Amino acid sequence: MPMKRPPPAWTIFASAVLLGPLLGSGCSLYYRNQFRSERFRLFSDLDQELLNEVGPDIERIYRGYQSLLEPPPRTLGRTTIILEGKARDERIIDLAYSPSLLGYYVPLLNLISVDTRAAWAREPGMLRQILLHEVSHHFIVACFPSLSRECWFNEGLAGNLEMSLFGDGRMETPLLNPVLLGIAQRAARQGHPAVDLERLLSLGWREFHSGETREIDYALSWSIVYFLLERRLLADLTLRAKLDRIESMQRAELLQSEPEWIGFLVRFDLTDELIALSREDPKGPLGRLTPAWALRLLGQLRCLDDERVGNLLIEEMGTDDAARVSEARIAFLSLMGRHHSSSIHPHRWRQGREKIAAAALDASASLGARVRLIRAIGEVAPYDADWTSLLVWLLESPDGDLRAAAARGLGSLSLKPTVVNPAFWRDGHSAARAGEVEEWRLWLKAHGTR
Amino acid sequence: MKSHGGFLSATLIASAIGWGAGCGGLPAYQINISAPHKDVLRLLVILEDRAAPETYREIALREVEKARAQSRYWPYPLYEVSVDFRLDTAGRDRLAHVLVRLGNESGSPEGESGSPFPVVETTIY
After folding, report:
1. CB distance from B94 to chain A under 8 Å?
2. pLDDT digits (tens, 9 = 90+) for A129-185
3. In a domain, B112, yes or no
4. Which of A138, A211, B32, B92 is most buried, by CB atoms within 10 Å?
5. Using an 8 Å Cβ cutoff, are A338 and A304 in contact?
């Protein structure tokens, strides 16, 4: 489901009136905790510990957008960011609470508000995506003051930028938003009346954010901006240069793109796109974080061509990039979890399994990668006698973390009662552990497995 | 295919059906206990009405204390207790789930995530 962020005009006005006096130093009186940075002030009633984690993340978002969008000096000011919610919300996951508005940005007040009362909005990946979206609005307004008034551009570009990835001191912006793509593509394939570029380009804030087709309009806005950036404009331009080019386009020029845009949506092959992203040149701008992200999605998404995905993952498992190989193994396990009888050729299937089993047993591999893989075998892969034997074998590994991971995997399979406490498997008495392993051996024997 | 036979057959800590006394301001409830693993308990609590999140937590912690007292002589200290709350109707609608992760046997004061034990996670449906 797309995020429903910007509020209607009356909410903006009410916010200005009600929150105005609270901004700046006022917020510090109103909210229990805060995190201060040169570019923003973060206020919340959530625990300070959470703010101390989120604050540096927002700082990275600011730095990333600063170098990506190059806003004119001194146009950004200092943003006030409010994470709505209470410390109690962190201990109680209320799945019944689902707000219609996860966050919004009020340019007039340089204010971002994010509703973290929904349990899923506090999940770190989701919270980062919401913040990426809302902070991008601030940069879009600063960089393109005139075009930012167009909803399709403002929301569409934010839908692209919210997919940015951070890690290893860098930011990568793959722009591909599989959720919004799914909604836009379905609408285009069904010939939904909302798939009308003239209508989309003329939507005002009120119509956009409170109309019946709000969800589709978000998705279509993402898709037109993505189409222009990735298919229409020269690939060797920087993102900023492409956006400047869009800013200079006349409406008539944009409208001429409609048939091509709809065709692009109808024919878009997500499997192909993710495979291409997973093979990005490691030295290129999308070469470090994007391939791992694309591999994860190839394992998780259910709407892909699994035969092509399986073949790619087996190939990736044979490459020499440790991070990509590790992601490919986990993704292959996810694929196996989805398909008991796979569309993949049995020989290729076996090949993948053997590579994963060999990796789990490879004592020369990194401990972290092995632990992650062994956990995934129990949690993601379907029940299989060979996997069970492998996990039982690993219960006797010299490394406590591997034993604990194997026990967790066996616990997830729920084949028979066992001890799942990781501390038992890491540091428990060796005789007690040996007793448990012996029980498992007898179980395997009774079930015809060695 | 994953077998779930263990959930039903595990009687390491005897399965029980009883009535909570409703003391201390807590509502009356019916409880069913199973042990899917040697150090894991699964509790099903049937309530007559929806309750406040804190009530689910209190009931769960109360039952955890009882279970800990009863399993004193069991060789494997309780590691996790999962409590499912359902409404006493034909459909037995799911109300909440409380997961209590208890201290580990090495006596470490912190859980894997760095939170102090016991870690209590309440999910409301």
Report:
1. no
2. 999 999 999 999 999 999 999 999 999 999 999 999 998 889 999 999 999 999 999
3. yes
4. A138
5. no
Q: What is the pLDDT of residue B106?
A: 47
Q: What is the residue range of B31's domain?
A: 7-124
At A339, list the tokens: 């398909």
Which residue of chain B is at minimal alpha-carbon distance from A120? B123
Which H or E element spans position A81? Answer: strand A79-86
Q: Tell me the C-alpha distance between A356 and B65, whole Å.
A: 42
- Alpha helix locations (H) across chain B? 5-9, 53-70
The amino acid present at A24, given as its one-letter code, is G
pLDDT of the residue at A389: 93
Q: Where are the alpha helices (DSSP H) in A301-321?
A: 306-317
Q: Residue A190, Cβ neighbours under 10 Å: how many?
A: 9
Greater confidence, A98 or A194?
Answer: A194
Helix axes A385-394, A346-361, angle to 10 degrees: 10
Distance, CA of A409 to CA of B12 (rounded, Å): 21
Structure-derived torsion over alpha carbons of residues A221, A227, A232, A236, reported in degrees to the nearest 10:
110
Give the CA-trace dihedral at A305, A311, A313, A315, to 10 degrees.
-150
Q: Could you tell me if A449 and A388 are in contact, meaning their C-beta atoms sit under 8 angstroms apart? A: yes
Residue A79 main-chain phi, psi, to 5 deg: -85, 145
Bridging pattern class, strands B29-37 and B40-47: antiparallel
Query: Are β-strands A79-86 and A92-94 bridged in parallel, bridged antiparallel, or unpaired?
Result: unpaired
Cβ separation A417–B124 shorter than 8 A:
no
- Pairing assessment for the beta strands B40-47 and B80-87 based on DSSP bridges: parallel
Q: Which of A414, A418, A421 sits opposite B4 (nearest CB)?
A: A414
User: Taking the CB of residue B41, how many other CB atoms lie within 10 A of it?
Assistant: 24
Query: What 3-state class would DSSP assign to A337?
Result: helix
Residue A117 has pLDDT above 80, yes or no: yes
How confident is the model over A332-341, as pLDDT tens digits? 999 988 775 5
Tell whether B2 is covered by a domain.
Answer: no
Q: Where are the domains of chain A?
A: 9-143, 178-267, 281-350, 362-450
- Number of domains chain B contains: 1
Take residue A122 and report the two structure tokens written for it: 């506090």
DSSP secondary structure code for residue A46 in this structure: S
Q: Least CB-CB distance to A416: which of B6, B53, B112?
A: B6
Q: CB contact, 8 Å: B12 with chain A?
A: yes
